Amino acid sequence: MSVLTGRIVKAVSGCYEVAAEGAGSEKAAERFVCKPRGIFREKGQSPLVGDRVTFVPLPEGEGRIETLLPRKNYLERPSVANIDRLYIIAAAADPAPVPLLLDRLIALAFDRGIEPLLVLNKTDLGDVAPLQQIYRTVPMRLLPVCAKTGEGVEALRQSLFQPGVSVLTGNSGVGKSSLLNRVDERLALLTGETSRKLGRGRHTTRHVELFAVGQGLVADTPGFSSLDMERGQWIYKENLVFAFPEFLPFAKACRFADCSHTGEAGCAVAEAARRGDIHPSRLNSYAALYREAAAVKDWQRS
Q: Are residues 87 and 222 in the same domain?
């Protein structure tokens, strides 16, 4: 019985579509609809889209996942593993951007070793300058785009077509699927394909799936509410300042070495926010996330 290596490219209701490695790109590779061995449940392991796995091919294009190969990172929401770039989609309007939600995603990316990029969509509906001002000192790319008019789509396309796994994420309604279809018109067909075992794809995304674009793979993910993001996904309070990298040059100058940057006397980060060297909105988000992290019990940290 042969054992192959592949990557999970789609997951729906306990079934996983795996693209076999070693036969060209994942775009052209043979794919198998697999179920995991029961031992995964016993170990409390859940395969994710993006995971590299070993699997045994079975008749009629089916298979059985044997092992999960080591991950370099993963996110719980959206549920994807081995991510290189996280494209955080916000809309200039409809829906209005929520800085705390954006900052949570940006911080998670930095904390997990993922490159964050902030994509400001629907520039035809509103001014993105206020958001650009908030993030001007954050070491990440900002891409103003408009799926409707095509503004900025070519820059987004060139970025997504790079090798690696890219994930698009953001609040429901910000236009993730529309941007993907504008980047590569073939995806309009892919998201509408019907799979006998894995169900119908929709433009309104209901599952996570990886698509081949250029030399890379890109995941469209279901939209979420702010409440969804507050469940089970946080950063240790000791690590949080490193997830706000524009704070670091100032944090070194704080009066106390253990300063939490949430209101202590002599906090150089707070002083930087007062001067405008970092945006006050970012410090407000940091404080909110720090309070969440500080409330996590020791037994939850394992």
A: yes
